[in-house]
Amino acid sequence: MNGDVTGSFELRNADFEKISRFVYEFCGINLHDGKRELVKARLGKRLRQGEFSSFSDYFKFVMTDEGTDELVEMIDSLSTNLTSFFREPAHFERLTEILKDMATSKKKLTLRFWSAGCSTGEEPYTLAIVVQEALAGRNDDVKILATDISTKVLRKAVTAIYDENKIRNISQPLLRKYFLRGTGSRNGQYRVKSDITEMVRFMRFNLKDSTVFSETFDVIFCRNVMIYFDTPTQQALIDRFYDCLRPGGYLFVGHSEGLTGLKHRFRYIVPSVYRR
Questions:
Q1: What is the pLDDT of residue 1?
Q2: CA-based Rg of the chain, rounded to a whole angstrom?
Q3: Does 224 or 122 have the greater pLDDT score?
Q4: How far is CA 268 from CA 55, 101, 247, in A?
Q5: Burial code of 237-270, b = ≥16 C-beta within 10 A, e = fewer?
Q6: What global pTM score does this model have?
Q7: Of 27 and 147, which is predicted with more confidence?
Q8: Is 116 helix (H, G, I), strand (E, B) or coil?
Q9: 89-275 under CATH 3.30.465.60, yes or no
Q10: What is the rounded CA–CA span in Å between residue 207 and residue 70?
């Protein structure tokens, strides 16, 4: 296979349609025509690295058994992974209220969280910090499942190491309490402490997968993920989240999302927060 020496590839209509149709069927991401340049730019890098001569050759390769690893790389490249610690802070304030209300019970709590579309880990680690703060001094059983379709972001999440610019939304007291500051070659980096990381389990997961989890959840965070899906995919996902929640469980979606226009069985609490 010969690479394009100019570094530019033509994305023909037929190739864009094949790629976008497959990505939609595989993981629900809606690559409408407005995403054409994004597809061309991101996959163009994969073509150059793999020395493919065209998008057509590249797509034929990822559809083969030999191209399975590259298929994962393709999905990684087309997934948008924008996140930060304590993003949309009103959600974590609401969650704190919910947890403190639960803590009025003297009984040991068994709580299960799902961070769906966890990206590089900032959201599930934030959830763990909020739980630690809200349930301080208790011996509750809390576990957080964090999933994403991108293996690239999951590898980053598992390291639990973040650059200085990634932790700017964290207050100094919380930073000192839950992070280790790097020195020497790690200067300017911060590692999440083990008492937080031990609460989180990362797993690659396709939200279109019909796999049934072994247990239900008390809280599901799926924020700023559904905006990449069309309405039928959103509808199927909302139905699934309802079935995955325990009675009385909570669903948090992005502030720009909400469930308007979807048929659902949830009870509205406040904007972007729903309860089964």
A1: 46
A2: 21
A3: 122
A4: 45, 18, 14
A5: bbebbbebbeeebbbbbbeebebeeeebebeeee
A6: 0.84
A7: 147
A8: strand
A9: no
A10: 20
Condensed to tens digits (0 to 9), the pLDDT of residues 66-111 reads 998 899 889 888 877 778 999 999 999 999 999 999 999 878 999 9
Would you name the residues annotated as active-site residues? 42, 148
Four-residue CA torsion sign, 72, 73, 74, 77:
positive
pLDDT value at 256 more than 90: no
246's tokens:
């325990």
13-78, CATH topology level: Chemotaxis Receptor Methyltransferase Cher; domain 1 (1.10.155)
Burial of 67 (0-12, 13-18, 19+ CB in 10 A): middle
CA distances from 23 to 28, 55, 99, 182, 255 (A): 7, 14, 38, 39, 26
| Mean pLDDT confidence for 248-272 | 92
Q: Which two tokens stand for residue 234?
A: 């959103």
Q: What is the mean pLDDT of residues 48-63?
A: 94
CA 194 to chain centre: 21
Give me the amino acid identity at 12. Answer: R
- Report which of 112, 118, 116 is spatially closest to residue 85, judged by C-alpha positions: 118
**Domain spans of the chain, in order of start:** 13-78, 89-275
